[in-house]
Write a structure and sequence with these properties.
Length: 97
């Protein structure tokens, strides 16, 4: 039988680290309140974001390096972010660490 995750995201592969999925969902839900919806299921992108968050949470204690590729995926819909955006501020703090 397929897992619920596999049913929601058929292309999901194997994970090689234990993921804190409940904690990631709770954190994501605090901001986006997806558990309060009654007639709209989580979208593929929301599930992807929760999985990505869980991966970051799982690796956060042992993380020693972060890299970004140059395909313009650090901001929504191919736009840019301003120097005062929270993303820019956080990236600068990360580089200073």
């Amino acid at each position: 039988a397929q897992s619920k995750l596999k049913q929601l995201v058929p292309s999901v592969g194997s994970f090689h680290t234990p993921l804190p999925l409940e904690a990631a969902f709770a954190l994501y839900d605090q901001k986006y309140h997806i558990s309060q919806r009654r007639h709209v299921t989580p979208s593929f992108n929301e599930i992807r974001h929760i999985l990505n968050l869980a991966q970051v949470m799982a690796l956060s204690k042992s993380l020693r390096m972060v890299t970004f590729d140059g395909d313009q995926t650090l901001y929504d819909d191919g736009g840019n972010f301003s120097a005062d955006s929270i993303l820019c501020v956080l990236l600068c703090k990360l580089l200073e660490a």
